[in-house]
Amino acid sequence: MQELYRVLKSGGIGIFQIPQDLSRATTFSDDSITDQKERAKIFGQYDHVRVYGRDYFDKLRSIGFKVEEVDYTNTISPDLVEKYCLAKGEIIPVCYK
Asked: What is the dihedral of CA 88, 45, 19, 80, to 10 degrees?
């Protein structure tokens, strides 16, 4: 996250979409899980080692980003929701530097 902040130009905007489970208060990570099937089961993809919780937005803020939490699935057409592969109710962090 610090590297994202560092490389984003001043006044820049970033959308940092990640695997997130909004029912979790905190981020869960475990890089000791190395079996691809187990990773896919736990993290949603075989090449992930964490799933972020609701604390993700505050983590971004703690680095220095101004963060807007946006649910585009309530503001754009269903066709666009499908086109952009958004999950219903997914909260997207729109980050400003």
From this structure: -40
SS3 content of the chain, % helix, strand, coil (to 5): 30, 20, 50
Task: Count how many residues are written for the chain.
Answer: 97
Nearest to 36 by CA among 19, 17, 49: 49
Q: What is the pTM of this model?
A: 0.82
Coil, strand, or helix at residue 65?
coil
pLDDT tens readout for residues 42-56: 898 899 999 999 999
What is the Cα 93 distance to its own chain's centre? Answer: 7
Query: What are the helix (H) ranges across 32-72?
Result: 36-43, 56-63
